[in-house]
Structure prediction request, 226 residues.
Amino acid sequence: AAGVIQSPRHLIKEKRETATLKCYPIPRHDTVYWYQQGPGQDPQFLISFYEKMQSDKGSIPDRFSAQQFSDYHSELNMSSLELGDSALYFCASSTRDRVMIRGYTFGSGTRLTVV
Amino acid sequence: DAKTTQPTSMDCAEGRAANLPCNHSTISGNEYVYWYRQIHSQGPQYIIHGLKNNETNEMASLIITEDRKSSTLILPHATLRDTAVYYCIVAGATGANNLFFGTGTRLTVIP
Prediction:
């Protein structure tokens, strides 16, 4: 079965650079969620999108922005990168209005390292 | 979102049942109990969820107390590959509800 695809798997950037992470949800899933997981920490919700509109916002820094496109894929744009942005970034997808049978499906994540 | 409380860590002998408790005393009537696990640096993986009845699937069983204030995830025959951080999360039934991860239980399965 198709899963949530994230790219790239690994990314190394320097401080003050920008980064773009991509997420391709499971076909027919209309909702995408982004999470950040720092070293030794639990996943923290950043932002979610439904039908190309932002639906909820968590602890996302102002330097970060995201959007969902017409094909439902989503991109997380991160600017003025700081060392503390080094983390695993996970994307998950689901269907918003249908009762979940098997919960959210997470991608394998993008490991961002800021040097 | 309702807060959950889990032990920080647990050990379990390989082949034995692993019982992971979770307290969610402020759960509301329409909220489900979800369990996810995260094997080192991989994306969280859905295990099971339930509202008030006990549930079983190919991965685990979920026992929810009658008052719904606590639950237990049971891995009937733990293997080394079950070593992971297990998260108990309370959320609504649909994808309109974001998942908020608390501090899960680090389960170590010992040979």
